[in-house]
């Protein structure tokens, strides 16, 4: 991070706005791919290195991402997480 900060300067609000405009709002379908099952499975398998070998997750945790019930459980946490965010913001005065 120090090297990047030295090369590019601080990542302040202006730099964030520029990055948002360029990389998110400026994205087009040229940067997208429609993935069938084989392509999705290939990308999923690429996660093994970062999830299991680098982050110490289990293969079971990685494979759970294929289960629709896993994502329903994540989605069900949104109200509780939103409450925690609101409580935190109130506690720090934002």
Order of helices and strands: HHHHHH
Largest sheet: none
| Poorly predicted regions | none
Q: Report the sheet-strand fraction.
A: under 5%
Helix content: over 70%
Structural class, from helix and strand content?
A: mainly alpha
Q: Compute the average pLDDT.
A: 92
Any idea what the shape is? extended
Quick tags:
94 residues; mainly alpha; 71% helix
Description:
With 94 residues, this protein is mostly helical. The protein is 71% helix and 0% strand. The chain has a domain at 1-32. It is built from six helices and no strands. The mean pLDDT is 92. The longest helix has 18 residues, at 37-54. It has helices spanning 2-8, 13-25, 37-54, 59-63, 68-76, 78-92.
Question: SSE layout and pairings?
Answer:
Elements lengths: L1 H7 L4 H13 L11 H18 L4 H5 L4 H9 L1 H15 L2
């Amino acid at each position: 991070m120090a090297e990047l900060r030295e090369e590019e300067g601080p990542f302040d609000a202006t730099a964030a706005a520029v990055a948002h405009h360029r990389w998110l709002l400026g994205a087009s379908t040229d940067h997208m791919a429609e993935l069938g099952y084989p392509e999705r499975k290939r990308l999923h398998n690429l996660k093994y290195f970062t999830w299991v070998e680098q982050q110490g997750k289990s293969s079971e945790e990685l494979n759970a991402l294929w289960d629709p019930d896993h994502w329903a459980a994540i989605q069900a946490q949104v109200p509780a997480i939103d409450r925690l965010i609101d409580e935190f913001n109130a506690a720090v005065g934002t």
